[in-house]
Amino acid sequence: MTTQADLDAMIANTPEQFVRGLPVGRPIHCTSGTTGTPKGVWSGLLSEADATALSA
Is the pTM of this model over 0.70? Predict the structure, then answer.
């Protein structure tokens, strides 16, 4: 992939089954809380409307 035309051609030829919408995953935040032990905090998935708003 070296040009915008190459990218456009690849996207145009991508089978529908592989075309996805916007990502709806949220970041995992790392915290040590009160114990000092690192842990991840997952805040769930974004709604379609929130994902759209974040990509604008």
Answer: no
